[in-house]
TrEMBL record:
Classification via PANTHER family: L-ASPARAGINASE, PUTATIVE (AFU_ORTHOLOGUE AFUA_3G11890)-RELATED (PTHR42110)
Pfam families for this protein: Asparaginase_II
Organism: Cellulomonas terrae
Top-level taxon of the source organism: Bacteria
Protein name, as recorded: Asparaginase
């Protein structure tokens, strides 16, 4: 059994009232524009699940198989969206262009991630639905790809489906790491293993490569709101750093590619999302990003009775 925590080291400390209250361990890697390792903590070559940070790579596989989207639609295919109304409009549009509807989605039903959108959705008499789950854009893209390629849609989530076979090959190609393990992601789609180094390598290609990877990265950086949504740090990082391609993933994963070819990837071993902004910001500064650009996004206050009494700080940085 692979243990992602075996070589983990402290990446962030939680400060409350001047004391270290807790520590988040994990792994991080920063690649230089030429692909060499600029910085690393922990083990960037440990096998891991990239979770939703893998979505842009899955999108590249869809484009290769015939999916015809770009701009905001392509960004939404890469998204873990809030299910705000405009997000749902784009998902419906992708499905409609393929002659499909929300009933064709096979991802796990859920509430919108955005609290206000979830309240309105429920007030309108709705329950949890695949449409409002954060991965519905990816699944709409998968379904539209199947229609374009002439593949069946009913079993598109099976690992043996032509779409998933093609996706596995693309993940291995873009990361440079052969897929060793396959499991099921939270949304129901197949999930393919990789390493942090491989994930960072693939995001360098999204940010400054060519062909379909670059087209995918360009859509994300040009439409950051569609990749996450209002108030989300993935959106805010891309708004703050021109040309940045960033994607968060469940259980403490983050990856980002820079327009100069540099890239970063990280994994928080306890699966917490709390330290991710601070750690990503620190990794970006090591990669050469001006700290002033990401300082506001990195700030994660620790609250006491509704006011800041501390913050989450990375253990490293430029």
């Amino acid at each position: 059994m692979t243990d992602i925590g075996a070589a983990a080291v402290p990446l962030a400390r939680v400060l409350r009232g001047g004391l270290v209250e807790s520590v988040h361990t994990g792994h991080v890697v920063v690649l230089a524009p030429d692909g060499s390792q600029r910085f690393a903590l922990g083990d960037p070559d440990a096998t891991m699940w990239a979770r939703s940070s893998l979505k842009p790579l899955q999108a590249v596989a869809m484009l290769r198989a015939g999916l015809d989207v770009d701009g905001a639609e392509l960004a939404l295919v890469c998204a873990s969206h809030n299910a705000e109304p405009a997000h749902l409009d784009v998902v419906r549009g992708i499905l409609a262009s393929a002659g499909l509807g929300a009933d064709d989605l096979r991802n796990t039903p859920d509430w919108p991630l955005d609290p206000d959108s979830a309240w309105r959705w429920r007030a309108d008499g709705h329950g949890t639905e695949p449409l409002t789950q954060n991965c519905s854009g990816k699944h709409a893209g998968m379904l539209a790809t199947c229609v374009a390629a002439g593949w069946p849609t009913q079993d598109y989530l099976e690992p043996e489906h032509p779409l998933q076979v093609a996706t596995r090959a693309v993940v291995g190609e873009l990361t440079g790491v052969p897929v060793e393990l396959v499991t099921v992601d939270g949304c129901g789609a197949p999930l393919f293993s990789t390493t942090l180094r491989g994930l960072a390598r693939s995001f360098a290609g999204l940010a400054c490569g060519d062909g379909l990877p670059r087209r995918t990265g360009r859509a994300m950086s040009a439409h950051p709101w569609h990749v996450a949504g209002t108030g989300r740090d993935a959106t805010r990082f891309m708004e703050a750093v021109p040309g940045l391609v960033a994607k968060d993933g469940a259980d403490g994963v983050y990856a980002a590619g820079l327009p100069d070819g540099g890239a970063v990837a990280l994994k928080i071993v306890d699966g917490s999302s709390r330290p991710r902004p601070a750690v990503l910001a620190a990794a970006l500064t090591v990669a050469g990003v001006d700290r002033a650009l990401v300082e506001a996004v990195a700030l994660t206050p620790v609250l006491g009775h509704g006011r800041a009494v501390g913050e989450v700080v990375a253990t490293f940085g430029a």
